[in-house]
Amino acid sequence: MATAIIEHKATSGKVIIMETATGYIRTMIGLERKDTLSPFQPTTDFCTPYPTEQRQVATLLAALETGKISLSDTVDVGKGIYISGGDTIKDHNWHRGGYGKITVEWAIAANSRIGEVLIRERAFGDKKSEYEAAIEQIGYGKPDSVEGLECIPSTNMATSKISPIQLIAFYNAIANHGRMVQPQLYKDSVAITSPQIASKSNIDSIRQALEGTVTEGLGKRANTDKTKVAGKGGTIQIGNFNDSTYIIDFCGYFPTGNPRYTILVILEKQGLPASGHIHAAGLFRKIVEQLIQNK
Q1: Which of 52, 74, 196, 267 matches a 20 to 30 Å C-alpha distance to 37?
Q2: What is the pTM for the complete model shown?
Q3: Where does the signal sequence lie (predicted)?
């Protein structure tokens, strides 16, 4: 972990490795430092919500459940700048003219923020409460507590914040073909918190989109010739323009057919370059290859 933080000139990093079938957390490690010259200190904060772009996956799954959206549908993200509810949303490539008209599946693979908004608007219109209820229904933002950890419940499912333990639990449910299991620090009996967070066909669609993100989309740095992986990254700038602090992450699982492990990588760093699909995805790939080597 320390090597990865130094390599990417980050100030903190977190990694969670979970057994997909059982929810048992095999590894949960976090390190932080005040700046790139300071010594590392351990951090155990895995339950506080943090800002992330990973809600895009939950938005798509909730939209698929309405029956108003499919992966092959198209959305026009234009030149990469979109106004919604008084907010200006920009895709990462807005300065290069944006993506224009793309499929819903590619909106995920290309990490289009505008694509997420258009998908949400098509499925839920301006009904914010309906959207929030749909997000909660599929288990995004669960669990509220984990034995051995102090967790802060997510109170607003429409925000971009979620705790690391909740995010990996959501991805783990996707890896589990829709079955959500309780994360646990101790090898105990498996606790199923939801037998099926969404229809099997829609879970399959999400799995397809996450696999495509790695093979064809921005997540290619997570790809490895050792096995087939699926996942998605995110990049968010926090603070003001002058305080260019970025939180980057990548969450995914492997192997795609019958997943054994679900992995979350989070890095916080000052300044550019900063990309969840490059830096965090690269560390994700190294962890996957190490797990395969050690099995």
Answers
A1: 52
A2: 0.94
A3: none
